[in-house]
Amino acid sequence: MDTSGNSLPSGSDGSKRKVCYFYDSEVGNYYYGQGHPMKPHRMRMTHALLTQYGLLDHMHVLKPNPAREKDLCRFHADDYVYFLRRVTPDSQQELLKHLKRFNVGEDCPVFDGLYSFCQTYTGGSIGGAVKLNHGHCDIAINWSGGLHHAKKCEASGFCYVNDIVLAILELLKTHERVLYVDIDIHHGDGVEEAFYITDRVMTVSFHKFGDYFPGTGDIRDIGYGKGKYYALNVPLDDGIDDESYQSLFKPIMSKVMEVYRPGAVVLQCGADSLSGDRLGCFNLSVKGHAECVRFMRSFNVPLLLLGGGGYTIRNVARCWCYETSVALGVEIEDKMPQNEYIDYFGPEYTLHVAPSNMENKNSREMLDGIRAKLLDYLSKLQHAPSVQFQDNPPETQFSEENEDEDNKDEDNKDERIVVDSDVNLDYESNAATGKAKMEIVEPEAKDQNDVMAIDELAREVESTVIDTKNSKDSTVAGEADGDDAPVYQDSNVAGEADGDDAPAHHVTEKSPIDEMDQL
Ligand code: V1D
Ligand code: CA
Fold first, then answer.
1. Distances (CA, A) of 421 to 198, 203, 303, 359, 484
2. How many beta carbons lie within 10 A of that of residue 322, not counting itself?
3. Which of 20, 78, 159, 316 could be bridged to 42 by S-S, CB 3.0 to 4.6 A?
4. Where is there biased composition of kind Polar residues (predicted)?
5. Among 279, 316, 320, which is best to mutate for testing ligand 1, by the most ligand atoms less than 8 A from CB?
């Protein structure tokens, strides 16, 4: 494999891209509990498809370094992270007050290995950002990440740690502006909230709006203060199909790219917007969903692809496998190759399945109105004096001696990436959260400080971008802050189907497959 630096091609969209794919073979063993729709097993199914389609041979496969406590605390409150680290199914009875406070319960249950699960999926997203920052790849993929609902001090909607916010903070070390795009059917509230009052990050979420979790994401929510017009929301109704979706996605994202000119893009590819999802109500095909990936890729800007929701797990695996092939620029056939989860994919045994004939409640008039409104917001941004953007400052250069030794061998399929945490982003004091959003009505001194603090974050990051001499690349490969080892992996329950997701005989025979060998 070519190990030279960033190879973003200027050629046609079909050009190959250098892709880093993050996967930990343990991730499929975590289990939210019986009846819970979130199934980390879907990542193992995705990986099995990638393996059998031969796609692993086209990309750099990395095992993420678990994110450390101090990495998580760049965004999350210390006491919340401490709680996540300590709570276990056995200890939770004594921690009822804390469970309530941190919103841990039915949607976000305590399960065995919860903290290591968070470290793993977050390590992949931060690792992807580091790889992109170093110019080691054009596209980084972490299908285990994308948990967009987590807040600074609160779990929400199956999400505990917001790996996206942390990955964006990492990208901000190198890039003046980062664009976040969210195609999960749910509103990307946690990410929007974190960056609501800054122009360093633009967030765009497409989602079902109206009597649907989490209830936020009104088209009129556009950011605040310096962040005004840098948060966009695209509210949609049931049954949206590929054509309707793309009639919004492409013109809006073209304009965003033209006006905002981000240095990096993070695309949350929640697959619950697919037709037939157990929790979702949209009618997108895998090709329609993947068209968003293809489109964002076509801008040749460093791209981080993340997972998210997705509850009909056979379709999640289909979708993320196909999207990996799109990222690579490699065509794969519709007929599914033999793989250990082939029984899930019957009776079609194909990658693509037809969407349904459900009603599309998004009328042409509604779609036209939404598009016009968003393009109007973007035109205001375009004409604002503050958006006379400078060209990107030069990317931080990293000397060879700062490179993690373990990461030099590009053929090493079991690479670990070090999370670069030497830039001190004091996010703890300034997390611009919904608090800021809600409290703008009657600002108190403390709240004003919160609002101001995000500018401090921006200044700090800016100085980091410019002051490359002081930017140290962490070299502590595998460093763990104490008891980082997985607490527990229950192999027998992984992949258990509570609904109609899996053939019954898969329920009991799952054991952790040592995919390390295949990496
Ligand atoms: F159906 C369930 C069974 C067990 C536990 C939870 C659920 C469930 C389904 N839908 N929970 C939900 C949503 N929660 C509520 C709650 C009712 N309340 C007062 C809140 O409606 C949460 C849906 C979360 C969606 C997560 C996501 O797809 O956006 C995602 N993205 O990245 C990771 C997950
Ligand atoms: Ca969304």
1. 22, 24, 20, 48, 17
2. 21
3. 316
4. 385-397
5. 279
Secondary structure (3-state) at 175: coil
- Is the pLDDT reported for residue 255 higher than 70? yes
pLDDT, average across residues 284-301 = 98
- Distance, CA of 23 to CA of 20 (rounded, Å): 10
Domain boundaries, the chain: 19-391+452-518, 396-443
CA-nearest residue, atom 17 of ligand 1: 213
Q: Is the CB of 272 under 6 A from ligand 1?
A: yes
Residue 149 designated active-site: yes
Query: For residue 320, what are the contacts with CB-CB under 8 A and spacing of at least 6?
Result: 46, 143, 269, 271, 307, 310
180 with 164: CB under 8 angstroms? yes
Q: What is the mean pLDDT of residues 80-108?
A: 96
| SS3 (DSSP) at 258 | helix
How many Å lie between the centroid of ligand 2 and the Cα of residue 166? 18
Strands 60-64 and 19-22, sheet pairing = parallel
Residue 73 phi/psi, 5-degree rounding, is -75, 0
Quick one: pLDDT band at residue 14, thresholds 50, 70, 90? low
pLDDT digits 0-9 by tens, 408-438: 333 333 333 333 333 222 222 233 333 222 2
CATH code matching the domain that covers 19-391+452-518, chosen among 3.30.160.390, 3.40.800.20, 3.40.30.10, 2.60.120.260: 3.40.800.20
Ligand 1 centroid from CA 208, angstroms: 13
Closest Cα to atom 25 of ligand 1: 157
Per-residue pLDDT at 491: 26
Q: How many Å separate Cα 107 from the centre of its chain?
A: 19
The pTM of the full predicted model, rounded to 2 decimals, is: 0.80
Give the H or E element holding residue 286.
helix 286-297
Q: Is 148 in the pocket of ligand 1 (CB under 6 A)?
A: yes
CB distance 384 to 229 below 8 Å: yes
Residue for token digits 């695209």? 234
Q: Which of 183, 213, 312, 501 to mutate to test the pocket of ligand 1 (most atoms within 8 A of CB)?
A: 213
Task: Note the residue count of the chain.
Answer: 519
4-32 burial, b for 16+ CB within 10 Å, e for fewer? eeeebeeeeeeeebbbbbbbbbbbbbbbb
pLDDT of residue 13: 64
Q: Point out the catalytic residue in the list 47, 76, 149, 187.
A: 149
User: What ligand has the least distance to the C-alpha of 164?
Assistant: 1
Residue 67 has pLDDT above 80, yes or no: yes
Q: What does R_g of the chain's alpha carbons equal in angstroms?
A: 21
- 270 touches ligand 1 (CB under 6 Å): yes
Q: Which ligand is nearest to the CA of 270?
A: 1
Quick one: which ligand is closest to 162's CA?
1
CA–centroid distance, residue 34 to ligand 1 (Å):
14
DSSP assignment of 97-135, as one string? HHHHHTT-SSSS---TTHHHHHHHHHHHHHHHHHHHHTT
